[in-house]
Structure formats: structure tokens, C-alpha cells
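Quick one, C-alpha cells below:
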């Protein structure tokens, strides 16, 4: 088995435990996407290797249970997070009619796939009859059309949610035909659409995150616990932070090989350290430990690498910090959250010339962002001597969400006299 001899010692060689952990995670991913409505749930409980089989009423699992009576995590259907990009309609006839629309659809699928917590399902033309809510793997459908004149190209996109067939987002994108190559236009529009729909604070994650608040923290899957953590950053409260901590701790206990959950837990420890949260023992040390674990388990996770960069920054490891920032941005340069977070850390590290443009780009891409990104703009303005600009930043919404806001405002008002 696994290329080991019959007499290998399982106490010295962890191959079985490692493979069992991977199987548990694969099962969780399966029931998160393709198996979301399966009537039978297969699990391999932690501490053993004997599978269990549980029958599930799909209709009950798909409903929203009250928080006080949340079902056992193994019997609850995880949130479906799959999106499918349907063929775009090319309205303008021409010699190359359809080629631009098909190329844009490919770019949309590629850009959406960069967001690690979002499943993207292939949709070939012959699969279109499944659009009518019959495919349980897909909850969201991205639709659109392309129109062209001699001078202007316009792309209209909309996001539809099953099973209500409800349009939950729509946007139009217009480009002059002579502005660049058609491939460049496809790539640019696809990045903007993917950021609006599938990024950490895009339409789909925020919609799903709101649903996690109806479930007891201990019953959230690792993926859902991470969604809950992202959502909490928009309007943090002590109670919400405690629920995120409980959800993530339960998630990594059930699935200790889920790297992004370890990364989110590490970032919670960072917040506890920065905000001096009482009764949290050695949050700085725990942040480093959890961040390393997350990055080791999920080296291709942008969240894990971004939190690892933050851990290096907190511990004064400048060269490692700058290297990890580069790795983070390379994984998905179109993510508004990680553009902003990287810019924020670069500003604090004295790299404002590079950090501030990243911050400004991130804020322009998505109006939903964590409050602390504005603190990055403040610090950059302050250290450049632009005290009026720093003061204007303190006027933005949610700047005073904790004690740092009034403290920073007092500092700049002192400079302004």
C-alpha cells in the first residue's frame, strides 16, 4: 500500500494519516460542489479510517435551519458555491461574429477560477438544457451579450441565482474599438467581472457569507468558516470575532489539513495582537505558527501566502515579507482584497510608492472592503507630510471602528494645529 512494504511502521511513517486527511478534504470538497444534493453522505471520522454512511433528506438539508437547532455538520449540506459561465450572445452580425464572445467566455472562466474558494463548472453548448435548475452542482449562472459598432464595443453581463432564477447583479462594460487588441479588451473586462462577482467581497461570496450567519459556528465547514471570517472584517464586533474564532477552531480540528482555514485563524491572532484583545495568550506567536501551517498545507492559496507575508511583517522579517508579497500578488493579480492588503502592508513597511497605487486600485475595483485599508491611505499621506490628505481620509466611513481611528485623527489634527 502506497509503495510501502508490508512491515512498515505506521507510528514512524505517517503516510496513511496523510492520505486519510486528503481523502477527508476531498470528500468535503465533493459535498461542497458536485455532491451538494446527494442523499448519502460519506465521511471518514477523525481518529480512525472506517467510513460512515449517513442518509440525508436533500430538501431538509437545503433549507435554512434556525441557529439554535443547527444540524450536525456531517449531515448538513454545505453551501453550493459553483458558478457556470453560459455562452455569451453576440448580437452584432459580422464575419467574426461569435469569436469575441467565445473568447471572452473563456477569459471569464479563467479569471473566476483564480478565486480559490469559488468552483467554476464548465458549460458546453450541449449542456444548456441543464440550465433550468436541474444541475445541483451550479447555483449561479453568468450570462451576457456583446454588441459592436465601428467605434464601440459593449458587453452586458448579469448574474442569475438558482432556483428562483433571480438576477442578483448586472453591469455594462464599454470600450472604444481602437483602444487596443480585442484579446486585451477580453482580458480586461473578464478581470473586472470576476472581481465584481467572485472576489473575496464580490456578489457571490458576500451572499454566501450572509447565509453562514444562520448556522452555529461549530457547524460551519472550513470553507464556510473562511467566508464568515472575510465577512466579519467589513464590520467587526467582539461578538462576531468570537464566533469566527469558534468556527475556525472547529474547522481546523475537523479538517487539520485545510490550509486557508489555518491562515484565517492566523489572521485572527494578528488582530488580537494589534488590538490587544484580552485573554488571548501569545497571539503573535500563534499567528506565526498558524500562518506557517496554512502556507505549508496550501502553497497555492493566495490567502495562505498573504497571511504568511503579514506574519513576516509582524515579526520584522523584511526580506521574507517582500518575497511573500510578490508570491501573493502573482497568484491572482486581479483580486481587489489582496491588492489592497498587499498595498496596505507595503505602505506600513515604508514602500508607499508601490503600496499606495495598489491600495487605490483595490478601492476603485470594489466598494466593499475592510475598514483598515483606509488606514493605509492615511499612513502614506501622513509620512509624506500631506496632513490635509490624511485628515480627509479620517472622514471616511468606518475609520473609527476601533481605538486606532480616533488616535490617528488626533495625531494629524495635532500636525494641522
Amino acid at each position: 500500500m502506497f509503495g510501502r512494504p508490508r512491515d512498515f511502521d505506521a507510528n514512524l511513517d505517517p503516510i496513511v494519516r496523510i492520505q486519510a486527511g486528503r481523502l477527508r478534504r476531498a470528500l468535503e470538497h465533493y459535498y461542497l460542489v458536485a455532491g451538494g444534493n446527494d442523499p448519502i453522505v460519506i465521511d471518514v471520522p477523525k481518529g480512525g479510517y472506517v467510513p460512515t454512511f449517513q442518509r440525508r433528506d436533500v430538501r431538509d438539508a437545503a433549507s435554512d435551519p434556525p441557529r439554535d437547532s443547527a444540524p450536525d455538520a456531517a449531515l448538513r449540506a454545505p453551501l453550493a458555491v459553483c458558478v457556470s459561465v453560459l455562452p455569451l450572445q453576440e448580437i452584432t452580425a459580422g464575419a467574426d461574429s461569435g469569436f469575441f464572445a467565445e473568447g471572452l467566455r473563456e477569459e471569464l472562466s479563467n479569471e473566476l477560477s483564480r478565486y480559490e474558494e469559488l468552483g467554476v463548472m464548465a458549460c458546453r453548448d450541449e449542456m444548456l438544457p441543464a440550465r433550468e435548475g436541474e444541475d445541483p452542482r451550479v447555483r449561479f449562472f453568468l450570462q451576457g451579450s456583446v454588441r459592436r459598432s465601428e467605434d464601440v464595443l459593449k458587453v452586458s453581463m448579469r448574474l442569475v441565482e438558482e432556483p428562483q432564477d433571480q438576477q442578483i447583479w448586472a453591469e455594462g462594460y464599454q470600450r472604444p474599438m481602437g483602444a487596443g487588441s480585442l484579446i486585451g479588451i477580453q482580458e480586461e473586462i473578464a478581470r473586472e467581472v470576476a472581481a465584481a462577482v467572485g472576489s473575496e467581497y464580490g456578489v457571490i461570496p458576500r451572499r454566501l457569507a450572509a447565509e453562514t450567519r444562520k448556522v452555529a459556528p461549530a457547524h460551519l465547514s472550513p470553507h464556510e468558516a473562511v467566508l464568515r471570517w472575510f465577512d466579519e472584517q467589513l464590520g467587526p464586533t467582539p461578538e462576531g470575532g468570537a464566533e469566527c474564532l469558534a468556527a475556525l477552531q472547529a474547522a481546523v480540528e475537523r479538517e487539520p489539513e485545510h490550509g486557508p482555514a489555518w491562515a484565517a485563524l492566523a489572521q485572527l491572532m494578528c488582530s488580537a495582537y494589534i488590538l490587544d484583545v484580552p485573554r488571548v495568550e501569545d497571539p503573535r506567536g500563534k499567528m506565526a505558527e498558524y500562518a506557517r501551517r496554512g502556507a505549508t498545507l496550501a502553497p497555492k492559496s493566495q490567502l495562505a501566502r498573504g497571511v504568511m507575508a503579514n506574519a513576516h511583517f509582524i515579526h520584522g522579517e523584511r526580506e521574507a515579507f517582500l518575497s511573500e508579497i510578490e508570491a501573493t500578488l502573482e497568484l491572482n493579480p486581479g483580486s481587489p482584497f489582496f491588492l489592497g492588503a498587499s498595498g496596505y502592508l507595503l505602505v506600513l513597511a515604508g514602500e508607499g510608492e508601490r503600496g499606495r497605487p495598489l491600495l487605490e486600485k483595490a478601492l476603485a475595483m470594489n466598494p466593499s472592503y475592510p475598514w483598515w485599508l483606509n488606514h493605509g491611505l492615511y499612513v502614506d499621506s501622513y509620512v509624506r507630510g500631506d496632513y490635509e490628505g490624511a485628515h480627509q481620509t479620517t472622514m471616511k466611513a468606518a475609520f473609527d471602528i476601533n481605538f486606532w481611528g480616533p488616535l490617528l485623527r488626533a495625531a494629524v489634527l495635532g500636525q494641522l494645529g
